[in-house]
């Protein structure tokens, strides 16, 4: 988590949060992490999450995180902080600087307000650090538990990238489509025998779906090649799959 958070600070804001150097979690992230267990549980009931968020003090864990994000935006615009400030006369070197540049140039695709910028900063931190850390941790855990797969992966990487000069440019081609709608269309949606009214949030238990033996053979095993060389063998071409938790 420390590494992912530091990298996202650099990529998003051009600022290192120094978690690795200090050897501790940033205070703003600690409170957010403590709240995630509750959110992951009651997040399956959207209306309950909405009401609980209105209880005074219920979102206290996020206060420091929200403040950190808004303060980072302020520092980007502060002329007295040259080391963190966005430089209009220079090419942007981080995501937020690009957004600020587009905003100053009145690009219609940019965030329309300060609060929108704050929201974007929160999305970048949560989406770029937490998910990255979780993915890396889970991948390393299963690779270490499955040494045969680890050695196979290392052999393939060494073969494809024998030297640092081969890392200059790499294409990203995901083996699966990663899009999907979060909300039903206004006129509703028919799913088999069930009709779902329009503008309704649909929540699906991802863990249960991805380990359902009706769709996934060997669902309890770690099979990194499930969507590539073993796809036909395992017969999962029509299996339901949500690549990004609740994002599909």
TrEMBL record:
SUPFAM superfamilies for the chain: Cytochrome P450 (SSF48264)
Assigned keywords, A-Z: Heme, Iron, Metal-binding
Entry's Gene Ontology molecular function annotations: heme binding; iron ion binding; monooxygenase activity; oxidoreductase activity, acting on paired donors, with incorporation or reduction of molecular oxygen
Pfam families tied to this protein: p450
Signal peptide feature range: none
Organism superkingdom: Eukaryota
Membrane spanning stretches: none
Protein name per UniProt: Uncharacterized protein
Source organism (scientific name): Clonostachys solani
